[in-house]
Amino acid sequence: MTIYLATGNKHKVKEINEIKPKNIELRGIFEIIKGFSVNEDGKTFIENSIKKAIEAATLLRMPVIADDSGLEIDILNGFPGIYSARFMEGKSYNEKMKYILKKLNNVPYERRTARFVCVATYYDPKKNLLFSVEGEVKGKIGYSISGKEGFGYDPIFIPDGYTISFGELGQEVKNKISHRKRAFEKLFRILNNITTIEKNS
């Protein structure tokens, strides 16, 4: 089964491909449509995830998976949240992380709680089948940018149970505990159950 991911982020495609079951082939929508983008005007991760999946699947006329994910920092009232990829548009993640660390200046470690959230949506326009799942990983924001692994905010996020950031832990560890891993595990499990039922019916 080939499913397209409604994202232009090649890092994300690579990460999800390391999570997926062997019987599914995942490709980025950018292989077919150059510059695909959606106006992410939803107020929640799930709204944006569903919108991306529906628009991409309608365009391709085939099953699509889309996700919306981001970092929520408790003491900043959930900021940057759904704007994780879009705030300070045009600036690098290194600059965004420096901005966040400055906002948390003098905040003690125990109050630097945060979580990465991922909502993944599957949509098959031919079967009119749509469902969404959520995954999260809790942790804290470190005091500095540490590590060069992963992407996005990985170098400042220290997952619970660890003392170093995702950027230092590396992709192998991240793929076992990340928000994206947890969301996509659920999605593939549901998809497998649906496929099994269809085969047996």
Automatic annotation (TrEMBL):
Q: Which GO terms describe its biological process?
A: nucleotide metabolic process; purine nucleoside triphosphate catabolic process
**What Gene Ontology cellular-component terms does the record carry?**
cytosol
Q: How is the cofactor bound?
A: Binds 1 Mg(2+) ion per subunit.
Q: Which domain of life is it from?
A: Bacteria
Report keywords, A-Z. Answer: Hydrolase, Magnesium, Metal-binding, Nucleotide metabolism, Nucleotide-binding
EC annotation from Swiss-Prot or TrEMBL: 3.6.1.66
**Catalyzed reaction equations:** XTP + H2O = XMP + diphosphate + H(+); dITP + H2O = dIMP + diphosphate + H(+); ITP + H2O = IMP + diphosphate + H(+)
Q: Which residues bind substrate?
A: 7-12, 69, 151-154, 174, 179-180
The signal peptide stretch is none
Q: Name one GO molecular function term.
A: XTP diphosphatase activity
Against InterPro entries, the record matches this protein to:
dITP/XTP_pyrophosphatase (IPR020922), ITPase-like_fam (IPR029001), RdgB/HAM1 (IPR002637)
Name the residues that span the membrane: none
The UniProt record lists the keyword Phosphoprotein: no
UniProt-annotated catalytic positions: 68
UniProt family annotation: Belongs to the HAM1 NTPase family.
> Which purpose does this protein serve, as stated in its record?
Pyrophosphatase that catalyzes the hydrolysis of nucleoside triphosphates to their monophosphate derivatives, with a high preference for the non-canonical purine nucleotides XTP (xanthosine triphosphate), dITP (deoxyinosine triphosphate) and ITP. Seems to function as a house-cleaning enzyme that removes non-canonical purine nucleotides from the nucleotide pool, thus preventing their incorporation into DNA/RNA and avoiding chromosomal lesions.
HAMAP family referenced in this protein's UniProt entry, alphabetically? Non_canon_purine_NTPase
**Could you tell me what this protein is called?**
dITP/XTP pyrophosphatase
